[in-house]
Every structure is written in structure tokens, then in C-alpha cells.
Write a structure and sequence with these properties.
Shape: globular
Radius of gyration: 21 Å
Helix content: under 10%
Largest sheet: 5 strands, antiparallel
Strand content: 35-45%
Length: about 450
């Protein structure tokens, strides 16, 4: 059972109580705030998703909870927010969308957003949409937010999942060069182990959805974040399933065929054994040599399974892909544990990521991995979160043009509703943290 993942794929009857029970259980613990200072939670809280910049330097993200009253969940339906830098310093938060209390426009966004060249935002919700499906909660949506003159935004639902095909789209999407969207669902498909889907804009308006692959468990289940290579092939991870007696997730490739379909190649199957990495739930990244890099939330050198950073190297000759563990978490003092998000590289080939727990205060970390001249890798903790600056980091990081890192925390901060933070490099580690915004669930 994957204890480190807070968002397991809800199957069968579990979807009945998904919003009322699971979302309440995941809500951040709240501190008492004087009533004169306490807002209503309408600005959202508990962000489990990464951020995205626009060309003007504004940040966009989602919160899974908050946003005001919500019949489906006493903790709120979630929001889309914008953070705008102020001329004199600091940031201003603005809610672009409070998800509709009737759920028809979707609610509970776990994943981050993607931005197109016209400034429109795209994302997913794990519930809502067609409320006749998934026992009245809806199976989730894909939505678009379009900016209007005057500063408001308009939401358009591009697709509603129906349970009989797919449900629970909990990972961020990506665009191809033609403007098509690609994403994953944690459940549904032919074998109810999740899917990879494509959304194609129609010339007269609207979008057409197509399932590219349905996982069957043996090739993985609960797929996560996708990337393209230069040839148009898709890569991703599955957080569960795979071959063998103790399957612990997979890494897969989808290759377009000449007939219009897609062929799946299972690149690697993780096994849940002592010393082995398993449960890769954060997706992968690709370097110029075709090597893949990712994290596993459990497994590794420690018996308790604190997680790893791994590299997958493409086959030479007739061999399969080769796995190399670059770092075992929890071995070093005050190291992070349980990395549940993916990695981001810099121009020098260093890797950066987050851990959900561990660190000096057991509230999670941001870390960096640097290749050494001898062929190994050295890990450093960029920052140990202490609760007041955030905690429980579910999302990965992004860079700005100056080399600063930005991310979100699901808990902690001034009001225990999570934070948006910035990490600034220093000559000596750790880096300098600045909390840009603290979410308030009260």
C-alpha cells in the first residue's frame, strides 16, 4: 500500500466518498486566528500543484480547497489564483476562478496549469463536470481560462470525463506544437488502471478527446506527468503496477504510429523490494543524450524506504534500459524523505526537486543534485521547511530568468493553509527563502 501518496487513485466505491472524506482528511491543520483578521477561506488554500509564469512575470497556480462555500465539500471547491509582483516589492494575490459550487464546471484541481501563447490557462479538476457520473460527484474536467478586458477571466469546460471512459485527471497537461493537449487520468480506461488522452481543438470550436492508451496494470497504473522528446514520443511514469510479484510502478514511452495510433513501450518496471526504488509518481525529464531522470516516493537504501532520485539510460545493443540510483533519501542527517514531485534541471546539468517530508523540521525540503567529476552525484538541501514558511511539499519547482526557484506548500505558513515561496541562490547552502503568500483556510 502506498502510504506516501496522499492522492491515491480512488476506485469503485471509494469514489462515492472521495470529496467529503478524502479532501477533508487532506486539509491542512488550522491554527486559531483572531476573528478580526480571519478571512473566509475564499482565496483558497492547500496547493498541491506547481506554478507557471507568464511573460510579464506573474505566477499562476491552483488550490485544491477553499474558494468559498461548496456543497460537495465543506472545505471548498478550490481556486485558480494569480500572484502579481508589486513595483515596490511584495506580491498581490488575486483569485481568477472560484470553482462553481454546483460542480458542473469541475472542482478540486490537484494539478498545475499550462499557458498558451495567447495567455489562456488550461488545467484539470479531479471531480465535477457531469454530475450524473461517479455517483453524483462528477469524474473531473479539463478547463480553459480566458482573460477578458477589464481583468476578469472566463472559464470554459473543454471536456467532461464520464467514468465509463476515464476519471481522476490529477496531473498537469502539456501541449504539442500543433496546439493539442495531452494528459493522464489516474483511473478509468479499458482495464480501470488509467489512461493517456489527447484533446484536439476543432475548427468550428470545441475540442475532441481521444484515448491514446489504456493501462492494464501489468504495464502500470495511475499514470503521471508527460513529456515529449524531439521526435514526438511521449514519456511518463505510472505510480503503481508493473511486472512481477511485487510491482512498484513503471516508466513508459508512447510512440505515434503511421496509422494514427500510438504504441506503448514499457521501459522499466520497478519492484517493491528492500533496497529497490519504487512508486515513481512524479513523472520524468529528459536530457540531450536521451537519459530520463525522476524520483520514487519510496524504496531506496533505507529499510523504511525514504525514496530516491534515479536515472534511466537507453539501451545499448540488445539490452534494455538501465536504472541507476543517483541519491537515496534519508541516509544523510536532516535529509528530505518521500519525493512525490518531479525534477527540474538547470543549464549546468544540476537537478532540483522537493520532498514531502523530512528535513531539519520534518516538514519537507527543497534539494539540489550536482554531478561530480568522478561520475557520482552530490545532494544538498537547499531549504528545510519549518512550518512557518510552509510544509508538506507535493509540487515541483520552476525557475525564473534570474535562477530563483518558486513553488508551493500544501500546509504551513502564517495561517496553516500553505504557502507560495521563492528560493534565492547563495554562494553557500542553504538558499534564502521568501514566503510570497500564505493561504488562509479560515
Amino acid at each position: 500500500m502506498r502510504g506516501t501518496r496522499l492522492f491515491v487513485v480512488m476506485r469503485a466505491a471509494a469514489i462515492l466518498v472521495f470529496t467529503m472524506i478524502v479532501m477533508n482528511a487532506l486539509a491542512a491543520p488550522r491554527e486559531k486566528v483572531p476573528s478580526s483578521l480571519a478571512p473566509t477561506g475564499e482565496n483558497g488554500f492547500s496547493s498541491y500543484a506547481g506554478l507557471v509564469f507568464d511573460g510579464a512575470g506573474n505566477l499562476y497556480g491552483t488550490t485544491a480547497l477553499g474558494g468559498g462555500p461548496c456543497p460537495q465539500n465543506s472545505q471548498g471547491c478550490g481556486t485558480v489564483f494569480e500572484l502579481t509582483p508589486k513595483a515596490g516589492g511584495g506580491w498581490t494575490e488575486r483569485v481568477l476562478l472560484r470553482f462553481n459550487p454546483n460542480g458542473k464546471g469541475g472542482f478540486s484541481p490537484y494539478a498545475g496549469l499550462v499557458l498558451d501563447s495567447d495567455g489562456n490557462l488550461y488545467g484539470t479538476t479531479v471531480a465535477g463536470g457531469d454530475l450524473s457520473t461517479c455517483n453524483g460527484l462528477g469524474c473531473g474536467t479539463v478547463f480553459e481560462l480566458t482573460p477578458n478586458e477589464g481583468g476578469s477571466w472566463t472559464e470554459t469546460v473543454l471536456h467532461k470525463f464520464h467514468g465509463t471512459d476515464e476519471w481522476y485527471p490529477d496531473a498537469s497537461m502539456i501541449f504539442d506544437a500543433a496546439g493539442n493537449l495531452y494528459g493522464t487520468t489516474g483511473g478509468g480506461g479499458i482495464h480501470d488502471s488509467g489512461t493517456v488522452f489527447e484533446l484536439m481543438p476543432k475548427s468550428g470550436g470545441g475540442w475532441t478527446e481521444k484515448v491514446l492508451h489504456s493501462f492494464d496494470g501489468k504495464d502500470g497504473g495511475d499514470p503521471n506527468g508527460l513529456i515529449f522528446d524531439s521526435s514526438g514520443n511521449l514519456y511518463g511514469t505510472c505510480g503503481e503496477g508493473g511486472h512481477g510479484m511485487y510491482p512498484g510502478g513503471t516508466v513508459f514511452e508512447l510512440t505515434p504510429t503511421t496509422t494514427g495510433g500510438w504504441k506503448e513501450n514499457l521501459l522499466y518496471s520497478f519492484r517493491m523490494r528492500d533496497g529497490d526504488p519504487y512508486y515513481p509518481i512524479g513523472g520524468v525529464i529528459l536530457d540531450a543524450s536521451g537519459n530520463l531522470y525522476g524520483t520514487t516516493s519510496e524504496g531506496g537504501a533505507l529499510h523504511i524506504g525514504a525514496g530516491t532520485v534515479f536515472e534511466l539510460m537507453p539501451p545499448t545493443g540488445g539490452d534494455g534500459w538501465t536504472l541507476q540510483v543517483l541519491h537515496d533519501f534519508g541516509v544523510q542527517s536532516n535529509d528530505g524523505v518521500e519525493p512525490v514531485a518531479g525534477l527540474i534541471p538547470d543549464s549546468a546539468g544540476n537537478l532540483y526537486g522537493t520532498t514531502r517530508g523530512g528535513g531539519e523540521f520534518n516538514s519537507g525540503t527543497a534539494f539540489g543534485l550536482a554531478p561530480t567529476t568522478g561520475g557520482g552525484w552530490t545532494e544538498k538541501v537547499l531549504h528545510s521547511f519549518n512550518g512557518s514558511d510552509g510544509g508538506t511539499i507535493q509540487a515541483g519547482l520552476i525557475f525564473d530568468a534570474d535562477g530563483n526557484l518558486y513553488g508551493t506548500t500544501a500546509e504551513g505558513g502564517a495561517h496553516s493553509g500553505g504557502t507560495v515561496f521563492e528560493l534565492t541562490p547563495k554562494a553557500a547552502w542553504p538558499w534564502t527563502i521568501k514566503v510570497l503568500y500564505s493561504f488562509n483556510p479560515n
